[in-house]
Amino acid sequence: MIGLASDNLLGTVFGVYLARAKDEEIRRRKVASGGAVTALLTYALEKGIVDGVVAAKRTKGLEGQAVVAHNKKELLEAAGNKWSIVPFATRMKAKIEEENLKKVALVCLPCQAQFFAQMRDFPLLESDFGERIKYIVSLFCMGTFAFNAFLNYLRMKYNIKAEQIRDIHLKKDFLEIVYNGTKLDLPIEEVYSYLQTGCLVCTDYTGIWSDISAGFVESEPGWTVLMARNPKAEELIKSAEKEGYLELKEGSHVVGEILKKAREKLARAQQNMSYLL
Amino acid sequence: MEKLKVLHVDIGSCEGCNVSILRALPKIQEFVDLDMKYLAKKTCARDKYDMVIITGGVCMNEPHIIEKVKSLREKTSTIVAFGSCATFGGILRFCRGGQEPRPDHRNFQPINSVVKVDYSIPGCPPTPQMVQSFFKFFVAGDKKRLKLFKVYADIKKLSGFDLIDDIVLTGLCIGCGACELSCPTQAIEMIDRRPNLIAEKCIRCGTCYVRCPRASQMLSMGGRK
């Protein structure tokens, strides 16, 4: 356990690692960073630690859909950055019950992690399915797009249509939009106002309610940061390394960088709260 | 370890919450010594309890109930309001007098209208697993996890209406669908990626508000309702 108080911005942290997938196929298809989340979950699926992974998959434009992955192939299809929130709470429940999954890993955003972890810790309803959720993996998040508004903006200003967009990457301080074989760089400030209002008042960057937080830092390109928040998560990461799915190195030196981002989000939230509430 | 001495008092619930506590009993027995009227024990036998769990709302037209709740406050340092009626008024909020079987009952309030409450556990009813979790975290002294329940203890009213007012109409909703999934009466449906409340179906249990990540994050960060 590294020296972080439990009430700080990053929540409880047991260990911070930099990881990347050993599997070449995952590395090639990686989108955001080292593909460590895909590799970790592949390990969990192949060893039967979980029987399904619920994740969001981008379907068209910026829209997404909740899917259940049972193997590496399906995981790879869902991998990559998401730019809109997928309202998968209800959908997920249906999926889990349909397939009668007993041990699920979830890949979600901090807000969803909070909801599912609260459901797991505090099952208020008979219809809750918290006991079926084994791992909650939260991705670092700076906000999701009000994507109808954002797409409309892209169409009006740059004449880019939703169906032309192949991919979007977050670079240092601009968004790279890949469409029709070309690229467009949009400064972050320009697109900020197209984030959802609710995201502008959110204070959680890493997902403090999750079991594992994952994301990337600029100083370590090609690597995924994995933050284990409890012994159970720590064990999963360690054994994935032992079994040869993950390449792991100590990552406590990037905590400062994550903390900086988290503070940025907090400051933004405080500023926005002052005039929204 | 000495067992936690807990008293359960019902001041007018539908028994749903009570059944929930009873169902949890086998799992909490090892660290909780529960006084409850269903257990053929003399309740209120002790002068002091470590915790008093109250279920049901306070009928403001029944002075002896109000007195009883106040006397319970003297008996313990920790009062837990259990279930939506006790925490936020719940379905009892719809009481308006002239209704059978007790036309004289005109107004119900949550417990925190009468005495200070330490923890509020909403839900209609909260599940037995919730009782287990609560005691587990309480005995372990996990203040961080219990913080939200502490925050709810100061809130008198929370419902789908508040969710719409505070989160959706202010534009803070992110459309995650947690409320839709949490509603026990299916009073919430997502329309155009935002929740819509079917007013007649809302029983004012507050579960949607409690489960909303935006709302619960702001409340746990010290935001006020």
UniProtKB/TrEMBL annotation, chain A:
Keywords: Membrane, Transmembrane, Transmembrane helix. Residues 16-89 form the Coenzyme F420 hydrogenase/dehydrogenase beta subunit N-terminal domain. Residues 102-250 form the Coenzyme F420 hydrogenase/dehydrogenase beta subunit C-terminal domain. One of its GO terms (molecular function) is oxidoreductase activity, acting on CH or CH2 groups, with an iron-sulfur protein as acceptor. Signal peptide: none annotated. The keyword Nucleus does not apply. The chain crosses the membrane at residues 135-154. It holds the Pfam family FrhB_FdhB_N. It comes from the Archaea. PANTHER family: 7-HYDROXYMETHYL CHLOROPHYLL A REDUCTASE, CHLOROPLASTIC. This is Coenzyme F420 hydrogenase. It comes from Thermococcus paralvinellae.
Automatic annotation (TrEMBL), chain B:
SUPFAM superfamilies: HydA/Nqo6-like. It comes from Thermococcus paralvinellae. It comes from the Archaea. InterPro entries: 4Fe4S_Fe-S-bd, 4Fe4S_Fe_S_CS, Hydrogenase_assoc-protein, NADH_UbQ_OxRdtase-like_20kDa, NiFe_Hase_small_N_sf. Belongs to the FrhG family. One of its GO terms (molecular function) is oxidoreductase activity. Gene3D superfamilies: 3.30.70.20, NADH:ubiquinone oxidoreductase-like, 20kDa subunit. Pfam families: Fer4_10 (PF13237), Oxidored_q6 (PF01058). Residues 164-193, 194-224 form the 4Fe-4S ferredoxin-type domain. Keywords: Oxidoreductase. Transmembrane segments: none annotated. This is 4Fe-4S dicluster domain-containing protein. PROSITE patterns: 4FE4S_FER_1, 4FE4S_FER_2.
